[in-house]
Amino acid sequence: MIRTAFATALLLGLAAATLTSPAAAAQTARSSGVQAIHTGPGSFYPIVGKLKDQERVAVTDCTRQARWCEIRQLDNGPSGWVPGSYLIGSGAKNAVTPFDFGFDPLWPGGLRPRR
Q1: Rounded mean pLDDT of 10-22?
Q2: SS3 letters for 85-111?
Q3: Residue 39 or residue 11, greater confidence
Q4: Is the pTM of this model over 0.85?
């Protein structure tokens, strides 16, 4: 009985620590220069706001190779997409960028031409 209660308490404590760990928190980066915030991943999308130079943002998503990243401003400013090359913080970008295997096992020959 005591062991079961201790094990339950230990598991609940580990779960709480995991949920509040830095890994569970949003990844942040900062802007290198003033950047336009777009509604989608491309310069042809409408501009909804601007990032200030060195402004910290939460990175929520990136396209392949982190060409464009979706950001959320920490001061509740407009959210949207900015060029990934203008965000400083490779850890934040890597955490949300889809992995590119470089080959497709279902493609004949294994190596798919780059687009």
Answers
A1: 50
A2: HHEECHHHHHHHCCCCCCCCCCCCCCC
A3: 39
A4: no
**Structural domain containing residue 44:** 23-96
The C-alpha atoms of residue 76 and residue 6 are separated, in whole angstroms, by 42
CATH number where 50 lies: 2.30.30.40
CB 55 within 8 A of CB 46: no
As for how many domains the chain has, the answer is: 1
User: In this predicted structure, what is the pLDDT of residue 25?
Assistant: 53
Establish if 10 belongs to a structural domain. no
Asked if residues 114 and 101 have their Cβ atoms less than 8 Å apart, the reply is no
Q: Which of 82, 72, 71, 73 is nearest to 47 (CA)?
A: 82
